[in-house]
Amino acid sequence: MSSIEQAKQMAKRLRALLAQRDQEISHSTALELVANQLGYKDWNTASAKLPGEPAPETIAFERAIPILRIFDETKAREFYCGFLGFDVEFEHRFEPDLPLYMGINRAGLHLHLSEHHGDASPGATLFVPMRNIQAFNDELLGKRYGYGRPGVVQEDWGKVMEVYDPFGNRIRFCQY
């Protein structure tokens, strides 16, 4: 989200909070107040100087999608879809008897799973920041998965829950 859009959202929240206290203000007044809080003399100056969407030629990275090596489609589906609750986005094979390449996702986390020899090495670790880690842990424990029962551990940097897939890959979920 661009800085301009963030400022507009701030103005919207300000109006809503003031309305809860029976203090109605116009949208333009809220924009002016937010501009002042951001150090600009008025909204026109703020909207001219705040960064908008980057130009098309600007280097910008989208989300990273890790590729994890798998060796057995059935075990991968049992772990990632059955246990962790991911949905399959797509599946690809060059021919019916060739290795699987599959995209999965859950709640904004996208992973690619590959049986192809050169795509990844087993034993990877993914660090996944998240919200509501305890609810996720409770959900997983409720499934009584035979090959793992993760727990949440409080570390200095936040709550951590680790799961290990059948291929030696580790996913470290963390709530700050």
From TrEMBL:
Span of domain VOC: 60-176
Keyword Cytoplasm applies: no
Keyword Iron carried by entry: no
Keyword annotations of the record: Antibiotic resistance
Annotated signal peptide: none
Family to which the UniProt record says this protein belongs: Belongs to the bleomycin resistance protein family.
Name of the protein in question: Bleomycin resistance protein
Species this protein is from: Metapseudomonas resinovorans NBRC 106553
